[in-house]
Each structure stands twice: as structure tokens, then as C-alpha cells.
TrEMBL record:
5-hydroxyisourate binds at T48, D49, F150, R167, Q218, N244. It is found in: Peroxisome. One of its GO terms (cellular component) is peroxisome. The keyword Oxidoreductase applies. Its EC number is 1.7.3.3. Urate binds at T48, D49, F150, R167, Q218, N244. GO terms for molecular function: urate oxidase activity. This is Uricase. SUPFAM superfamilies: Tetrahydrobiopterin biosynthesis enzymes-like (SSF55620). It comes from Crypturellus soui. Belongs to the uricase family.
């Protein structure tokens, strides 16, 4: 049980320069006994309102260095403060505020929300067990208008899909990776300097001057995973889901026009989905 969607903005001031972190936190606990379920005895139950207040107090006292570190702080607090807690899991997602710039000069206290994908993380720990950290990006919409196809697939009496060697590749991406057992990582450095988000874009799109052909959604998902694993050594296991959006060419003959893939209609449902989990061999064997 726990408290979901604890939303707040943490403002940090360094002189005239301000920093913001707006987050949504979900924290769940599992207790060492089930008396509250079986007997209606609430003696060991930490109220969800208390859970919310603890999250807010930790944000006030510790600040939010990174959402991963804040998730670690929350897990450690519950695990070390309450002897009745057997398991704790915290999920945090961040509102994508970016500092405004004017002629290349960063503004000291103004920001713009740029929804180019939502950064999130999870931290979880069992009593007497390691603290494990995950991170990721979701709701990231990507499109390329050519250099994508789907050919040579299995056909049966139920197959109506035509083969294509030039189509729009469009999808909403969910990407989650594991750092394994918690170590002294600089999570913001991994995010910004190693540029995990940019790795996704590079693998999806290919070189900016020529692109790269995608023979399937599956191959694109694998390319994203392999690129991140090759660039970010701290990532151990990575899951990628790509929900695809089809675009059908609108038949405009009755309007007296030839439509050479210039006007297309999105097919919102049903939609295809491809999911794959890939990890380093040494981590999976462990």
C-alpha cells in the first residue's frame, strides 16, 4: 500500500539564480505482517498521509540533487526508520522544465516546459537486501518520414498487409534501464553528459545528413538498446517499448488530385507494439 501522485515543486535559490525540480512521487510499502488485512489491526500501519508528509519533508531538508538520489533517500528513510517495513518502492517522474535562453544567455529565473519525453526513475529495497535503482524516459514521440520499411514477413491466408520499402516510422517510446545494485553514481551526469536521451534519438534517426534504414520496428528497438549499452557503461539491463502509429495515404482521386504520400491520416487504434529487454551477459548470469 502507499501514496500515489505526490506532486510538488522544489525551488532552490543560489543568489539571484534559481533552480527548479517539479516531480510526481509514488511510494509503496510492504509490512512484515498482514494484521491490518487479516484482523483489522492497524497498529503497524504507517498512514498514507504520513508517507506523503515524509516525502515532502525529505524534499525540504535534502533538496533534490537528482530524482534518482531523491528516490534513494526516500527508500533509505523508510527502511531505516520503521522496523515494520519489509519492502519499499518509490517511483518519481519529473516535469521537463528547461531554463529559458535569450541569444544564448541562460535566464536566471525563467523556464519553459519542453515535453520531449518524461524522465523517471524507480528505487526499491527489501529488508536486509540491496537497494536497486532504475531510470528511464517515457512519452517520447519520434518520427522519420522515410528510410523505413517492412518486407519479407510471414504470410498466411489471413495476411492482408502489403510489403513496403518506404513508409513513415512513428512511435511513442518507453525506455527503462537498470543500474543494478545502488552505487555512488552521479545520475545527472549519466543523464546529461552521457546523454541517454540523445542515444535514443541517434539510434532511431541515424546520421543527420543521410539517416539509416530501418527494416522493422524490432530492429529499431534493438539498435536503440545496443547504442545505449555501448555508450553508457553504468546501464546493465535495458527495456524498450515502441508503440507504433500507422499513417495511411489519403485517396484523393474523387477530389481530382493525385496524392503522392503528401497527405496521410494517422490510425490511432489498433496499434502495434514491440517490446524487448536486453542486458549485459555478466549481469544476467549473476
Amino acid at each position: 500500500y502507499g501514496k500515489n501522485t505526490i506532486k510538488f515543486l522544489r525551488l532552490k535559490r543560489e543568489g539571484k539564480k534559481h533552480f527548479v525540480k517539479e516531480v510526481e512521487v509514488c511510494t509503496h510499502l510492504r509490512l512484515t505482517s498482514a494484521h491490518e488485512y487479516l484482523e483489522g489491526n492497524n497498529a503497524a500501519v504507517i498512514p498514507t498521509d504520513t508517507i506523503k508528509n515524509i516525502v515532502l519533508v525529505l524534499a525540504k531538508k535534502n533538496g533534490i540533487q537528482s530524482i534518482e538520489q531523491f528516490a534513494i533517500d526516500i527508500c533509505k528513510h523508510f527502511m531505516t526508520t520503521f522496523c515494520q517495513v519489509a519492502y519499499v518502492k518509490t517511483y518519481i517522474q519529473e516535469v521537463p522544465w528547461q531554463r529559458l535562453q535569450e541569444n544564448g544567455v541562460p535566464h536566471i529565473h525563467s523556464f519553459i516546459c519542453v515535453p520531449e519525453g518524461i524522465r523517471f526513475c524507480e528505487a526499491e529495497q527489501c529488508k536486509n537486501g540491496p537497494l536497486v535503482v532504475f531510470a528511464g524516459i517515457k512519452d517520447m514521440k519520434l518520427m522519420k518520414t522515410t528510410l523505413s520499411g517492412f518486407e519479407g514477413f510471414h504470410k498466411s491466408e489471413h495476411t492482408t498487409l502489403p510489403e513496403r520499402n518506404d513508409r513513415i516510422l512513428c512511435g511513442e517510446l518507453f525506455c527503462k534501464w537498470s543500474y543494478g545494485e545502488c552505487k555512488d553514481f552521479d545520475f545527472d551526469c549519466i543523464w546529461y553528459m552521457n546523454k541517454v536521451r540523445e542515444c535514443v534519438i541517434e539510434a532511431f534517426a541515424g546520421p543527420p545528413d543521410c539517416g539509416e534504414y530501418s527494416p522493422s520496428y524490432q530492429k529499431t528497438v534493438n539498435s536503440i538498446q545496443m547504442h545505449i549499452l555501448s555508450k553508457v557503461s553504468q546501464v546493465q539491463v535495458i527495456e524498450v517499448m515502441l508503440n507504433n502509429t500507422f499513417y495511411n495515404v489519403l485517396d484523393m482521386k474523387n477530389l481530382g488530385l493525385t496524392n503522392d504520400k503528401e497527405v496521410l491520416i494517422p490510425v490511432e487504434a489498433p496499434y502495434g507494439s514491440c517490446t524487448c529487454t536486453l542486458g549485459r551477459k555478466r549481469f544476467l548470469e549473476a
